[in-house]
């Protein structure tokens, strides 16, 4: 945009109070934190200033046109001011002109606009401050609210509907016996949880990476230790993960009062405080409590729950796996995790599709609590085979009972609202009588849920009874007093008929008198309705009485009958909507004003009783949380069974092999496996494929074949099937035996990491190096097209070396998709290596991708055929064919003549020899000889 265009799209507002500008400038100059956005409450709207205004304008409105500029000069206040491209005001050499420059300002409305901007700022990892004018002052401002991505306590009213909490992490790094040790405390004041975890990590900090991803950490408090080399690596890891962090002195990480502080928050510390061996984690907990200022709010005392995150319980997943397998939607994901080819086996389009991620595919939950729990399960697959089997039993119970599943999904669970949101509102004293009525309605639905569960008589009947029926009966019994209170104190008839939420008039003589006045008015309006129907010559049933809290009483007729009041001045039309035309008369409008007045007086008189009712309701928060947990778990199991049953081909229950079953002949075997996210796409007839990852026999699979042939989709689907099984979900296959893996490590995609200043090849090497250092014999490794970012010889050499290292040194399960056909020779040298290829047909001079994975290596290259499919110019195709023919002839006379000889000599090298240097020297000599022959 040109300067002139910007001038026309902005306004110069006349003089603003210099006192505010001076205050604002001093506020900015005294605080160098550029990640803090300040909003000023102007009683009806908010204003944002300076660079903050520019940032918010571009973030929310995607334009600077909403910006205005305040002139702070006494002279020539209407002078046009030149605006730079970044939205700031241009400076000039003249001191006088500099003093005339204005201040950028953005105004935002209270309500949805303010709430959306707060949410967006937190998603952008910004801190927020809300400033308000001091009481009885027109000049002095004070900070009234502040928040950050990991601390949203003061914005709970804005964030009540968010799907995830705001997890703040306090972290201390130490060295013990030569190992890196992390002491972590994590907390979410919104959901009243505080947790601890202490674990040893490797030099790649893989455990820390998994913790950050799997716990959805939003912000970190870091114990400063600048002399510690590990500390610098932690800072880099947090920066790479996009986690804002604040460095704090060691004095903030003191365990001196930790037990006392935790006791106040937890209510009791007995059997709750972690073992003394977790000293670093306890120190971090002390820092977290202090920074979140939890002890300043007495309502928190005794309300928090202590969680202990055990890394050994969950599969390890890092950001590369989340992105590469598209497990969840990551905001910073630069590419689709599945092929963008619109093929049979490979692909979905790169356009938006809600089912592209595994979580979006599975998330058909009926309740917000269920969606939150499912997200946690997807991020934290289990390692314990017994726990996995227990979840599969529940899924199987609902999978096999169609009537129960449909009843719960179609009727029972759908009518249960967000219990987490209700409990937060009640605890934060932000609830209303309407919330009490809503909770009453949810509790009233529980007998229906209970009846549906009692009707189940399948093979897991006892499991359902112990885990759901008995718990639900106990919760319903405990809610008895709450229901009795609501029925006694709140007028449920008014709530159901008119959506008015008030204390029963029978509770107070004054309220009874006011209610009598309101009833008299509503009765008069009803008589008017009957008379007006007669006046309009319409059937009485066609003139309906419409009530809303905002509009009070109006009459409504269908749009077809609108002609009856047209051109009749005594009838005043208030609104026209799909349900009809709403209108009134002057008499009805007058009665509405009186009704509104008495309603306001009623609310004023009932205030004390309403507050007392809400206080009693707040005492049921722990019970609401128990119910929310129970309903969430039930919802997830029902949802997983539903998704499994409605797939194009229903999912099946996998057989689970416990972690650590490392004897030969054990592994993952999948018959007719499918990619769960690709098979549901429109116009896709998915080709199912098999895989056999048997330890000692076929645990390392090399997949070759043409581009677009489905290699990437195939290896990703194996990763997703394994992950789904360890979540406790049925899987897309005809039959599946899944060996539990401790982690899924992936190296997929070949995009440059330009924001990090890292090339394609360097990104490949960094990710692959991480895999080689982290993987164990119980890991699943997925590598796709390694070595494309460098020369052919270097790429092949690295691919060979990495593959051999995985086989001989790590011994884990591996899927290795490659364009280096020469790599298939490994199957002749190592017994655990097997070859697979994606097939294609070239009959009758046509090229057809079959998307079928067959045994053995691919026997030819299809690069030119793929170019034809991509509509390359015919001249390019012809030139490529000619050059390929020349090279093929060249290879026939050189490389192919020595191929068998090279293999024979290579096989004779004793790689098990104790003289490793001699073996390496022989390999090097052979490679040199081979390369000389090529040249």
UniProtKB/TrEMBL annotation:
Predominant subcellular localization, coarse grouping: nucleus
GO biological process, one term: mitotic recombination
One Gene Ontology term of the molecular function aspect: mismatched DNA binding
A Pfam family hit: MutS_V
UniProt GO cellular component terms: MutSalpha complex
Matching PROSITE patterns: DNA_MISMATCH_REPAIR_2
Location(s) in or outside the cell: Nucleus
SUPFAM superfamilies noted in UniProt: DNA repair protein MutS, domain II, DNA repair protein MutS, domain III, P-loop containing nucleoside triphosphate hydrolases
Ranges of residues in domain DNA mismatch repair proteins mutS family: 779-795
DNA-binding among keywords: yes
UniProt keyword list: ATP-binding, DNA damage, DNA repair, DNA-binding, Nucleotide-binding, Nucleus
Family as reported in the entry's similarity comment: Belongs to the DNA mismatch repair MutS family.
UniProt cross-references to PANTHER family, sorted A to Z: DNA MISMATCH REPAIR PROTEIN MSH2, DNA MISMATCH REPAIR PROTEIN MUTS FAMILY MEMBER
Name the record gives this protein: DNA mismatch repair proteins mutS family domain-containing protein
